Each structure stands twice: as structure tokens, then as C-alpha cells.
């Protein structure tokens, strides 16, 4: 019976590993495409933050594609425990927080646009966003490496078919403290983003009621954009919360470690793929940066009036 259990575990692990490699490769392509697409658009705060989100998604998916997927698909260890510890720290802690942190900044941006400046965005908002994003990435780099902290804080991945170091009970104190911080931080992010999303929804509902009589095309366009960006932000928030819930449920109901690992990681890799798909579906039809067009002018040459039928550029 034990051999049959081992065989079934190996088969399921190899299948999930192959699925991880395929899903991660598709996710990398989607997120890289969206990253370059956002670069081609106007450098608004929203698109800058979306570019950052696509980068963090890509980095996590590369770990799945180049390390976690092959370890499970080939059913063999790859590299040293030190390498596994750094990659686990980056994927499970640093980059894992970077996505929801960026999502919070996206929600804050939507909140400020809808509630404070629905028409004109302050010029300094871009600088503030870039500064906040830089600080969050600096923290991500540190939390992914834990520079200055003991090596014991970086635990390697726990796969049943890969030898795991023999740690004592005291060795788990550091990683348990990191996990507690991770949970509380995610809880604060979830409460903050959902609270602001509720306020944004209320404001958009009020604006839609009061602006139905408006015939201005620009007003209608702004309203459609605000709704589209709001829905994108909500969907991205929800898949993050579902990911956290699946991780918790896998630990709660899976009787074996191999079940918890395959379920949580098998779903987690798809979260970053779906996140890229959401950005694609909501933004792939957005036109590139508007090119400047010559303004209407009249040139007089020897009594001849030459008019060029061109429209003046429309400021966004």
C-alpha cells in the first residue's frame, strides 16, 4: 500500500509540475506583452502601477517556470538548499507581498481620481506614485533576501520528494515570525483595498445618477474609463484574496503535505496568469500614445489661400 501511495504521489507531482511549467510560460508571455503595452501608452499613474504589477507577476512566474515546475515535473532536487531558501523567500514573501501592495496603490489612485480629482489629475501625483513604488520595491528586495538577518530565516521549499534540512524547534522561530507578519500585512491590505473599493463604487453610482443628462462626450468617456479601471482593480483584488483563501484551506483540509503543496502552488501559479489576463482584457484595446497633429493654419502665397484640413490636438 505504501508503494502504491508513493507511486500515486509521484505521478500527481509530475503532472502538476508539467502544468506549472506550461502555465508559467503562458503567464510570462502575457505579462511581458502587457508590460511593453503599458510602456507604449501615456505615462499615467494607473499605467505605471500596472507596469510594476506585470513585472512582479513575471518574476514569480519565472521562479515557477525555471525552478518549482521542473523540481516537480522531474521529481528531483535542483540546486542547493541555499538557492531553494532564497527563491522561496522571494516567491513566498517578498514578491508575494509586492503584488497586493501595488494593488493597494492602484486602488488608492482610483480612489483619489474618483473622489478628489475626476477631471484634472495633479502633476505631482506621478512623482509621488513613482516614489512610493520605488520604496515598495526596495522593501520587496530586502524581504526577498533578508539581508542582515540570520540564514536560518530563509527556509527552503518543502517538497516530500526533496531532502529537507534537519531543523530544531528553535530554528522555526524566525520563519514563524515572518509568516505572522505576512498574514497581518495581507489582512491590512485586504481591509484597506476593499474599504476603498466600496467608497469608489458608491461615488461611481452617484456620478452615474447625476451625469445621465450630460451630453458631453468627454464626460461619458471619463465615466466609462473610471468604471473600467474600477472593475479591473476589483477583479485583481479578488483573485489575491482567493489565493490566500486557497492556501489556508489546503493547509486545513489536506491530510498530506504533498496535497497541500500541489493544491496551493498549483492554484498560485494560475493567479499570476489570470492577473495578466485581466490586465490584457481591460487594456489591450487602449490606443497608443496620441501623436501630435499640426494645428489648423492658413498660408497666404501671392494672393492664394492654402488651408490644411487638420484638427488641433485634443489634450487628455
Give a brief outline of the structure.
This protein is mostly helical and 316 residues long.
- Which architecture would the CATH scheme give at its second level? Up-down Bundle
CATH class: Mainly Alpha
Q: Given the C-alpha coordinates, what overall shape results? A: elongated
User: Which structural category do the helix and sheet elements fall into?
Assistant: mainly alpha
Total domain units: 1
Q: Can you say what the CATH homologous superfamily is? A: Rhodopsin 7-helix transmembrane proteins
Number of strands: 2
Give average pLDDT, whole number: 83
Order of helices and strands: HHHHHHHEE
Largest sheet: 2 strands, antiparallel
Portion of residues in helices? over 70%
Backbone CA Rg: 24 Å
Q: Provide the spatial order of strands within the biggest beta sheet.
A: 1-2
Low-confidence stretches: 291-316
Give the percentage of residues in beta strands.
under 5%
For the terminal residues, how far apart are their CA atoms?
68 Å
CATH T-level fold name: Rhopdopsin 7-helix transmembrane proteins
Task: Give the number of helices.
Answer: 7
Protein name: 7TM GPCR serpentine receptor class x (Srx) domain-containing protein
Keywords: Membrane, Receptor, Transmembrane, Transmembrane helix
InterPro entries: 7TM_GPCR_serpentine_rcpt_Srx
Organism: Caenorhabditis elegans
Amino acid at each position: 500500500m505504501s508503494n502504491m501511495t508513493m507511486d500515486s504521489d509521484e505521478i500527481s507531482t509530475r503532472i502538476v509540475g508539467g502544468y506549472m511549467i506550461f502555465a508559467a510560460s503562458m503567464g510570462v508571455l502575457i505579462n511581458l506583452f502587457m508590460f511593453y503595452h503599458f510602456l507604449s501608452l501615456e505615462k499615467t499613474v494607473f499605467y505605471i502601477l500596472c507596469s510594476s504589477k506585470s513585472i512582479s507577476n513575471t518574476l514569480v512566474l519565472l521562479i515557477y517556470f525555471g525552478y518549482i515546475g521542473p523540481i516537480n515535473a522531474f521529481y528531483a532536487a535542483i540546486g542547493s538548499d541555499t538557492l531553494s531558501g532564497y527563491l522561496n523567500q522571494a516567491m513566498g514573501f517578498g514578491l508575494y507581498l509586492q503584488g497586493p501592495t501595488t494593488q493597494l496603490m492602484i486602488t488608492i489612485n482610483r480612489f483619489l481620481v474618483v473622489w478628489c480629482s475626476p477631471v484634472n489629475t495633479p502633476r505631482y501625483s506621478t512623482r509621488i506614485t513613482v516614489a512610493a513604488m520605488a520604496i515598495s520595491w526596495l522593501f520587496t528586495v530586502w524581504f526577498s533576501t533578508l539581508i542582515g538577518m540570520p540564514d536560518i530565516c530563509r527556509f527552503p521549499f518543502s517538497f516530500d520528494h526533496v531532502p529537507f534540512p534537519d531543523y530544531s524547534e528553535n530554528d522555526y522561530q524566525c520563519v514563524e515570525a515572518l509568516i505572522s507578519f505576512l498574514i497581518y500585512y495581507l489582512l491590512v491590505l485586504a481591509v484597506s483595498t476593499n474599504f476603498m473599493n466600496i467608497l469608489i463604487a458608491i461615488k461611481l453610482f452617484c456620478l452615474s445618477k447625476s451625469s445621465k443628462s450630460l451630453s458631453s462626450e468627454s464626460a461619458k468617456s471619463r465615466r466609462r474609463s473610471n468604471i473600467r479601471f474600477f472593475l479591473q482593480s476589483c477583479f485583481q483584488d479578488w483573485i489575491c484574496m482567493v489565493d490566500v483563501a486557497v492556501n489556508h484551506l489546503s493547509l486545513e483540509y489536506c491530510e498530506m503535505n504533498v496535497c497541500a503543496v500541489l493544491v496551493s502552488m498549483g492554484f498560485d501559479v494560475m493567479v499570476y496568469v489570470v492577473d495578466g489576463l485581466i490586465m490584457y482584457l481591460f487594456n489591450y484595446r487602449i490606443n497608443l500614445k496620441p501623436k501630435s497633429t499640426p494645428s489648423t493654419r492658413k498660408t497666404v502665397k501671392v494672393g492664394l489661400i492654402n488651408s490644411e484640413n487638420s484638427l488641433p490636438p485634443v489634450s487628455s
